[in-house]
Structures are given as C-alpha cells and as structure tokens.
Amino acid sequence: MRKEVLKIGVKLVKVGITTGWEKNMLVPGWSLIYTVRGCLEAVEKAGGVPLLLPVANNQSTRQEVLTSIDALIVSGEVLSVKRNVLKGGNPKDLSAQNPLRFANESAYILGALERNMPILGICRGLQVLNIVCGGSMFLDDIHHLPGRSNVQHHQGDKPPSETVHEVVFTPDTVLTELTGINKARVNSFHRQAVKEPPSDFRVIARADDGIIEGIAGTRRDFVVGVQFHPEVLPDPVWGKLFNGLIEAGKSYQKVNK
C-alpha cells in the first residue's frame, strides 16, 4: 500500500476557490453554492489543498477568509449564458447578473491583489478579474460580431472534456513559459468576452478569430486569467498551469510567514 508522507515543516499551499450561487437554479427551493469538481482535483494533483470560499454577505468575512489561503482561483460558471443572460431581457453585465457572487469575487480579487497573492481566473473568473481591474467586455453574443470567423465559442453537444477550437499563446508570456508550447486546443463555454484588458494586463492568448482567451497582470507575480476550463481538459499540459499556481503560492507563503 502506498503511503503519502508529509515532511515535517512542509506547509502545503492552500488554494481558495470561489463558488457559484444561483437561487433556485440548481435545485428548486434550495439556495446552493457550487464549483467545478475539476478545480479541486487539479489543485490536489498539483500538490495544493483546495478550499471552497463562501458566498458571504459580510465584507469582513470575505477579508478574513483571505488570511487563510495562499492562492486564489476565481472559478467558472456552469449555467448557460445564452439562456440565462442573453435572452429574456436579463442583465448582461457581470455585476448585475448575480450581484452577490460578483460582490464576493470582487472582494476576493481586490484583497488578493493587495497582498500580491497568486490569482487564476477561469472562464467567468477571467471576466470578473478583467472588469474588477478596469477592463471592458463584449456583452452581446460575440458570435454576432461583424466580420468574425466561424470559431464557435461554445461546446454545443460536446462534453466539457472535449476541445472545440484552438488558441494561440503570445510568445514569452506565462502560458508559453509554463506549458512549453505556443498553441493548444481548448473547450469553450462563453458568449461574452474581454474587449479591452486592463491597462496593467497583457493579452497572453487569442482564438483564431481574435477573441481574447487569456490575460495576465504585469505588475504582480502571478495574476492569470483564461477564458476556457483547463481543469476539466485531459491534456496533461494544463496540469502545468496549476503547478505554476502552486509554485507561486509557495513563494507567497515565504514572504508572508
């Protein structure tokens, strides 16, 4: 039987993962919080400890939570943007789609940035990171943008683990450094997208139609957002992204002993 031995004095990196909250949307009559299980598995596989962060009403609770973690994942969403946002006159901006979730994730992001804590934004998490830091969004369906190509930014009937289009990484950025490749095929679950990233961010990945698929902060040690869901893709290359987050978390620990 294989035994896992933790060396004395070794402190594992604790990764806080934001959770979703949609009243009556997952199970009628119940208000539930959730996240993608793949996030937890990816963090564990990379050697970290995943911790689900609460959807809290109290700002002081959110700030206290940040004292207990070494890195932050701003997680993605599983509900259909097309059905729940782009149809029926629902609010299109992220802050109005789900005000409580947005308030929590904004607080976690801003608190992490103040601490220079590593951040990984996934899908919706990239979009929240972008807005909180001053970027802009395409709020209407990107598939209707004039002059666009036939890249489909949604899965259709394919399961989350399958890829649907290619992204090209910007040379000499965190994605090329961590993965050792310059392009990859990814899954896709969005119909809104980053229009202009924040002034202190750079684009690190694009789809063939020019849509931004990754951004990274230039004034922090590790602040990265990707528009896809790497945590459910089977290609082992994406484990390197989570390894990078854990390594950044170790550096954060050393500075904040």
Structure notes:
Helix content is 29%, strand content 21%. With 257 residues, the chain is an alpha/beta fold. The strands form 3 sheets. Strands 4-1-5-6-13-12-11-8-9 form a 9-stranded mixed sheet, with helices on both faces. The protein has 8 helices and 13 strands. It has helices at 37-45, 59-66, 81-84, 94-97, 99-115, 124-132, 174-179, 239-255; strands spanning 14-17, 20-21, 33-34, 49-52, 71-74, 119-122, 136-138, 165-169, 183-186, 193-196, 201-207, 212-217, 223-226.
Features:
alpha/beta; 257 residues; 9-stranded mixed β-sheet; 21% strand; globular; 29% helix
Helical stretch tally:
8
Low-pLDDT runs of 5+ residues are 80-86
Percent of residues in β-strands: 15-25%
* C-alpha end-to-end distance: 35 Å
Overall pLDDT confidence? 88
What string, H for helix and E for strand, traces the elements in order?
A: EEEHEHEHHHEHEEHEEEEEH
Task: Kindly report the spatial arrangement of strands forming the biggest sheet.
Answer: 4-1-5-6-13-12-11-8-9
Give Rg in angstroms. Answer: 18 Å
Q: What portion of residues is helical?
A: 25-40%
Structural class, by secondary structure, is alpha/beta
Total beta-strand segments? 13
**Largest sheet geometry:** 9 strands, mixed
Principal-axis shape: globular
Would you summarize the structure shown here?
By secondary structure, this protein is α/β, with parallel strands linked by helices.
Secondary structure elements and pairings:
Elements: E1 14-17, E2 20-21, E3 33-34, H1 37-45, E4 49-52, H2 59-66, E5 71-74, H3 81-84, H4 94-97, H5 99-115, E6 119-122, H6 124-132, E7 136-138, E8 165-169, H7 174-179, E9 183-186, E10 193-196, E11 201-207, E12 212-217, E13 223-226, H8 239-255
Parallel strand pairs: 1-4, 1-5, 5-6, 6-13
Antiparallel strand pairs: 2-3, 7-10, 8-9, 8-11, 11-12, 12-13
Helix pairs in contact: 2-5, 5-6
